UniProtKB/TrEMBL annotation:
Pfam families: Cu-oxidase_4
Name this protein carries in UniProt: Purine nucleoside phosphorylase LACC1
Entry's transmembrane regions: none
Main location: cytoplasm
Protein location: Cytoplasm; Endoplasmic reticulum; Nucleus; Peroxisome
GO biological process, one term: innate immune response
Gene: Lacc1
Amino acid sequence: MVEAVLIDLFSLPANLQDNIQGLLHNTLEAIEKFSAVHAPYVYVMCCQRQGSERKGEQEFLLAALRGFQSLRRRLEVACAQTTAAALYTIKQRLDEKDLSIIKVILPTSRKDLMKVYIDHLFTAVYQFEFEDLQVVSDSESLQISEYQHEEQILSSQDVALIQNEIQMYLESLPSLKGELTILRSSLIPDDIFLHGFTTRTGGISYIPTLSSCNLFSSSKRRDPQVVVKENLRRLANAAGFNPEAFHRVKVDHANAVCIMGKTEPDNYDGIVTDQKGVTLAAPGADCIPVLFADPVRRACGAAHSGWKGTLLGVSMATVNAMVSEYGCNVKDILVVLGPSVGPCCYKLPHESAKEFHRIDPKCVRLFDSASPYIDIRRATRIILERGGILPENIQDDSITDQNKNITFCTACHPDKFYSHFRDGSNFGTQIGFISIKG
């Protein structure tokens, strides 16, 4: 069942703009007539003409609402100077109410254009259906039609203009939840490497579990790729790297490693390079973003180490790639474990806990329980030390008194970090990143 109706009155002919009240009245009448018992939410997009005083968004439409009390309580109007701004405002309202099934009523000429906006601003979480709104200029009226016009493919120039409009609007939005904050390790020399771990503040993602500097988009989340791209642009600007030379691991929760400059695997949880100016990144939202730096050979790497990747040795696989590809000496490699879920919070079923107990009994707390507490950081560190990484070249603040404030427990700090364990399936993502300075 349709949960929301979006009426696009954004680009009506000039002679109809002054009669918008009557036009909306006709449309609402049709919606009310064909709606189920439970009336949907109704959102109206209008163009806010420059130079006009902005009145209350619903005030000038009150006359159109007479007799539609069931809809009046569920109607909102978004007036803006661009389609991107109006549609993004409506998206926020949809997300506030967790609405996903939307009918779009719009002029036939706007359908292909609107689909491009929707493709960029929404993800596969949402379902859209379209109904044509036939504008009859002579009688100054509207009628909803089931007529489906033949799809037209917009030119690449038209699509580029839409993308530019969306980008400019997102860049204009204020940062949420405070300033953008980057955590850095004193172990990695900053005269050779640029690196850091992000927190959740300073971006534009507004959905509570994703706010505000979410750095990952998927078909299962409400944050579209364009929002993540804007968050990344702001991060790059603050950190000083080029977002166009940014490479994130393609998470598979395994131990494959990508060598920059060689054939890229379909999926990999580690990535290494010796190229200057290329930023490598690994995500984390409980899993460990691990950074690697060799100041002697001037090579670096990043890895995503969840419990499965930890058991499969993804961190040591990344080290081995640096050794084999760039001639690194394992004793020169520096490793920093970023924010991740700690043994204070993280539990696994007993069968999985056995694997960590085999690495070292200290990696498991309450081993005899059905769901023991697991220390994936300790397990990662032990595996690295057994592989030849010097203990003093591993930074994991959870077991030292250095108070470097890098390896926070993500689940324990909702103000600073995202956590899948804490927030559920619609969780945000922070990253660890590193590059070699030019």
